[in-house]
Design brief:
The complex is a heterodimer.
Chain A (H helix, E strand, L loop, with lengths): L1 H16 L8 H6 L4 H65 L2 H21 L4 H26 L3 H111 L3 E5 L5 E4 L2 H6 L3 H4 L13 H13 L2 E11 L5 E11 L7 E8 L1 H15 L9 H13 L5 E9 L2 H8 L1 H17 L6 E6 L2 E9 L2 H16 L2 E3 L2 E3 L3 E8 L6 H17 L5 E3 L4 H18 L5 E10 L4 E13 L3 E3 L1 H10 L3 H22 L7 E5 L2 H5 L3 H12 L6 E6 H6 L2 H13 L2 E7 L7 H5 L4 E4 L1 H5 L8 H16 L3 E4 L5 H10 L3 E2 L8 E2 H11 E2 L2 E3 L9
Parallel strand pairs in A: 11-12, 14-16, 16-17, 17-18, 18-19, 19-20, 20-21
Antiparallel strand pairs in A: 1-2, 1-5, 3-4, 4-5, 6-8, 6-11, 7-8, 9-10, 13-14, 13-21, 13-22, 14-15, 14-24, 23-24
Helix pairs in contact in A: 3-4, 3-6, 4-5, 5-6, 12-13, 15-16, 18-20, 20-22
Chain B lengths: L2 H26 L10 E4 L16 E7 L10 E4 H6 L2 E8 L4 E9 H7 L8 E6 L4 E5 H6 L3 E6 L2 E2 L9 E3 L17 E6 L1
Parallel strand pairs in B: 2-11
Antiparallel strand pairs in B: 1-4, 2-3, 4-5, 5-8, 6-7, 6-11, 8-9, 8-10
Classes of the chains: A alpha/beta, B alpha+beta.
């Protein structure tokens, strides 16, 4: 019963939960309605038992009645035996009378017979047979009595005997009568006995049958009840175990949940702290050891704020105070906390006010280490405002600083310097980007070294730098800084074992505080910088308003250059290259000119850098190559008898980088059916200096085509001579600077020696040499003497238009070639 | 546990009780009327130790064996008159054969044994009827049971065919009297030992 009661409680609890599905109550299983089968069996059993009881009762009554009957019959028959016996004795005594004369004895015997007959009369009172017999017996006995009385009176023995003899038939009759009665009574008795026994047997059979039925139904009921009890118990057991299992599962789930939660809290990277209402630490999660390095036990009951950075303590106190007052979760706040190793961690804390929660009763702080995030944020902020490569401020920050400076009040003006490294692209092209980056970093460092604290240096991208000078007394002071910047950059940078100087063009713009705006100032500086570039580079310019016009012009030029090739404004001029020993024109260098519709004929210096800067060098270069080849073909056709002229075409580093170059060259040659060895491509020394795989591969590929390769302006670059061996170079063109030293214009003995050395070297390396910029006959003569193969310069001819050149060739046409005599040189 | 089982049990018990009552019925029919004590009719003249004269009439009872009073050799022969000289009593009792009340007069056997001078050492009385019917009593039973030797029934002498002339009767209160076999008809001899 206790189990059931508990089950009931369980069930009520389950019901109260409301979440669990309704299910079988074990208690109800045992109390459920009884089955109809058992009711029927029970009723039948009761009826059967009643019947059996009645049968037993009836049998008992029958038995007692039978017993009574039998007793009477036994009395009767017993009495009959006595009667017959007494009759027989009376008969005997009567027969003895003649001798004994014992009439007294006969009388007693007769009395005793009377006794028995009286008994018989009582016993057989209702038996007609007995009554009939008794009447006969009484009649006969009267005769006997009378005979005995007569005999008593006879004194004569003979008479006495006669009387006795006379009684014999009467006695015989008495014997027969009594025997007959006895037989009949006996027969009657056995008949009644067998009948009674039969009746009893049938009633016994009935009793046995009903008893068996009782047994059967009883057993059936017992089995049914047993089955019922078993099944009920099994069901109750199942329900009970299910309940227990469910409870266990629920407990396990709760336990697992707790474990999970504990594990979460313990293993969380967050530190969970519970503060009492007075602000002291009641509990720290284990993670405090990992995050802050402290033993959680030792932090208990301490003042949390001792770990907080002094600058943040007021904020933390405010945060805690506010969280204590406001229920729920407080927004995250960050502050610094001291790690056990002494460093500061940036932490972010969320507070949950659980003071009213009886399970906690405190303020729960969830603290997480956000140092990395903070660092990342700082880094991102830095990146947003600084140049990744040099660490200088970027354009955004710089512009902001300029705005701030202009907006602020101060005694001096504000100056902005725009610094653009000259020909930095060449460095990048020839030495590679990694070296270019190194150079930029070094340049940035130097730039900063020129500034005073408070000034800002920034990189705008590429090779553009800007400097903000917040305290400049006047334009001269700003100019002085600009000059210092240029000079500082001039000192060579050590790169790949070489000393590389950097030139820079600087634009200076001065702004009045509260007057100029930042954009205008920056634009002015930019314009000034372009002016410096346009003015020959490696210099600074201070902004003047008219510079804007120059700038506009440059922009126009750039726009026009885009269409120059299409409009046929590009032309090629040709300068002959003469064999110094014979004076024959063997080679012609093609030089590009821009026949500008308004500005006249412009040299390459006026537009090639522009073209390179704006990515237009590809199409221009290609046009030049095609046109040069076509011209070479035309001259071959024109002068079939003369030895064919070699055509020299300049190739910029940028062009050499282009992937389609080889195909273009092959195509140009093929289009004009020009022998490849009649085309010489001139490249500058700085191109070789890059020494990239691409460059050397291109050169090898060109060489493979059969094209000749020459180095232009040799001696001005910084290549070591050993480079020459590494590339498939055919000839060197000695720069005009060396040629100038030979024969007269200056006292350049050193240059002359260098020229000499170059020529000797070329001989050693079996390179063809061409001297550039020959202006005097002495120079030509000296160079010829030094062993230089060819020469080029005003001494022989200025660059000529194609028709003029054709004319010259016509004039100089002689057997064996175009022999130029100086007298015939075209003065133009 | 079930109501069915309980019902069955109750019914079964009821049946048992009922059956018990049925069996009890014959017992309840036993006559419970208080038997009246024998009334003295005549104090008698023959007392203990008195000499009993020889019988003048027909001898109805002969006593022998362990007796102190004799009148015929070793026997004590008694006729009706001798018997009636002893203290006589009258009592009404249920006659088992006639199945009705009969008022007998006669001598209490305890008085008879006293007159006959039966010693305390005697333990057994062997009684024989005219038809040689024999019954043994203990002397103690005889003395204590108020059994009587009747000489008259309903004021009349009893012929032999009416179980006379003398017969043994018991008062209703006597336990021995329930057995009809002990009601000896026509008793004629008593032998004490």
């Amino acid at each position: 019963m206790a189990v059931l009661r508990r089950l009931g409680r369980l069930r009520r609890r389950a019901d109260a939960d409301g979440s669990k599905p309704a299910r079988v109550d074990p208690g109800r299983i045992l109390r459920r309605r009884r089955s109809p089968l058992q009711l029927a069996l029970g009723g039948t059993l009761i009826v059967l038992i009643l019947v059996v009881e009645l049968l037993i009762l009836q049998a008992y009554v029958n038995v007692s009645r039978s017993t009574e009957i039998f007793r009477q019959v036994i009395f009767l028959t017993g009495n009959l035996v006595n009667v017959r016996q007494e009759t027989a004795r009376l008969n005997v005594e009567v027969e003895e009378l003649p001798t004994s004369r014992d009439f007294k004895g006969v009388a007693i015997r007769r009395g005793l017979l009377g006794q028995q007959l009286n008994l018989l009369r009582g016993l057989g009172a209702h038996d007609p047979l007995v009554e009939v017999t008794l009447r006969k017996v009484d009649a006969d006995l009267r005769r006997v009595d009378q005979a005995i009385a007569r005999a008593q009176s006879r004194s004569v023995e003979a008479d006495l005997r006669a009387e006795v003899t006379g009684m014999r038939p009467t006695f015989r009759r008495l014997h027969v009568t009594l025997k007959d009665l006895y037989d009949k009574e006996e027969q009657h008795f056995f008949g009644a006995l067998s009948e009674t026994l039969r009746a009893r047997a049938s009633s016994q059979r009935l009793l046995v049958a009903f008893s068996s039925l009782v047994l059967l139904v009883g057993v059936a009921l017992a089995l049914s009840l047993r089955q019922r009890v078993r099944s009920d118990f099994a069901r109750a057991w199942r329900a009970l175990t299910a309940e227990v299992d469910e409870r266990k599962a629920a407990e396990a789930a709760v336990r697992a949940s707790e474990e999970r939660f504990r594990s979460l809290v313990q293993n969380s990277s967050d530190v969970i702290t519970i503060l009492d209402a007075d602000g002291s630490v009641r509990w720290h999660s284990e993670s405090v050891r990992r995050v802050l390095g402290y033993d959680p036990e030792k932090l208990l009951h301490t003042d949390e704020s001792t770990l907080v950075h002094p600058d943040d303590r007021d904020r933390v106190a405010g945060f805690v105070a506010e969280a204590m007052m406001r229920p729920g979760v407080t927004a995250a706040s960050t502050w610094r906390v001291r790690h056990r190793d002494g460093g500061w961690l940036h932490t972010e804390t969320v507070a949950a006010n659980l003071l009213d929660d009886p399970n906690v009763g405190g303020l729960v702080l969830n603290t997480r280490d956000v140092s990395e995030r903070k660092q990342l944020e700082d880094q991102l902020v830095h990146q947003a405002f600084h140049d990744g490569l040099t660490g200088l401020a970027n354009r955004t920050l710089f512009t902001e600083r300029v705005e701030q400076a202009l907006a602020s009040i101060g005694p001096t003006d504000v100056a902005v310097l725009f610094v653009d490294l000259d020909d930095f692209k060449n460095v990048n092209d020839s030495l590679g980007h990694a070296s270019g980056d190194q150079l930029l970093v070094a340049a940035a460092k130097r730039l900063k070294s020129c500034l005073r604290p408070g000034d800002t240096a920034s990189r705008f991208g590429g090779d553009e730098f800007a400097v903000l000078l917040e305290r400049v007394a006047d334009r001269d002071a700003a100019s002085a800084v600009a000059a210092r910047v240029i000079e500082t950059l001039h000192q060579p940078f050590g790169l790949q074992g070489r000393a590389i100087p950097i030139q820079a063009s600087v634009g200076v713009a001065i702004g009045r505080r509260g007057v100029e705006d930042a954009d205008a100032l920056l634009r002015n500086a930019d314009v000034a910088m372009y002016a410096a570039k346009a003015g020959g580079k490696d210099r600074y310019e201070v902004f003047r308003p008219e510079m804007h016009a120059d700038m506009v012009q440059r922009l126009e030029l750039e726009a026009e250059l885009r269409h120059a090739a299409d409009r046929g404004e590009l032309v090629l001029h040709y300068q002959p290259i003469v064999e110094l020993a014979s004076g024959r024109i063997t080679r012609v260098e093609a030089l590009v000119r821009w026949a500008h519709p308004t500005r006249g004929l412009l040299g390459p210096a006026a537009f090639v850098p522009l073209a390179e800067e704006h990515g237009m060098i590809g199409p221009i270069g290609r046009w030049v190559l095609d046109e040069a080849c076509r011209q070479a073909r035309r001259w071959q056709d024109r002068f079939p008898g003369a030895p064919p002229l070699s055509m020299h075409v300049n190739l910029s580093g940028r062009q050499l980088q282009q992937p389609g170059l080889i195909a273009e060259v092959a195509q140009s040659l093929e289009a004009c059916a020009l022998e490849p060895d009649l085309l010489t491509l001139e490249i500058t020394e700085t191109v070789l200096m890059a020494d990239t795989d691409t460059v050397s591969q291109r050169l090898r590929d060109l060489k493979q085509l059969g094209v000749r390769l020459a180095i232009d302006d040799f001696g001005t670059g910084y290549s070591s001579l050993s480079y020459l061996r590494r590339f498939p170079i055919d000839m060197l063109k000695i720069d005009k600077a060396f040629v100038d030293g030979i024969g007269g214009i200056g006292e350049g003995r050193e240059d002359a020696a260098l020229a000499h050395a170059i020529i000797n070297l070329s001989h050693t390396l079996q390179l063809h040499t061409i001297a550039e910029g020959i202006e005097l006959p002495e120079q030509a003569a000296n160079l010829a003497e030094l062993g230089c193969h060819d020469g080029q310069g005003y001494h022989f001819a200025r660059p000529l238009g194609s028709e003029a050149m054709t004319d010259l060739l016509e004039q100089t046409l002689a057997p064996g070639g175009f022999v130029l005599r100086p007298a015939e040189a075209v003065a133009t | 546990m079930g109501r069915v089982t309980r019902l069955v049990a109750v019914v079964a018990m009821g049946i048992v009780v009922l059956a018990g009552c049925q069996r009890d019925e014959p017992r309840s029919q036993t006559p419970a009327a208080a038997a009246p004590a024998p009334q003295e009719v005549n104090p008698g003249t023959l007392a203990a130790g008195a000499r009993v004269s020889a019988p003048k009439g027909e001898v109805v009872l002969t006593m022998s064996g362990a007796i102190g009073t004799r009148n015929q050799g070793k026997k004590l022969a008694l006729d009706i008159a001798s018997l009636e000289r002893m203290r006589t009593v009258r009592m009404e009792t249920s006659e088992p054969f006639l199945k009705r009340k009969v008022t007998f007069e006669g001598v209490l056997l305890s008085d008879l044994l006293t007159v006959a001078g039966v010693p305390d050492s005697a333990t057994k009385v062997n009684m024989i009827a005219l038809d040689d019917y024999k019954v043994d009593f203990t002397v103690a039973d005889v003395r204590s049971s108020q059994m009587m030797l009747a000489t008259k029934a309903d004021g009349k002498r009893m012929p032999v065919d009416k179980a006379g002339p003398i017969r043994i009767v018991f008062p209703d209160s006597s336990g021995l009297g329930h057995n009809p076999d002990l009601w000896i008809w026509s008793v004629s001899t008593m032998r004490l030992s």
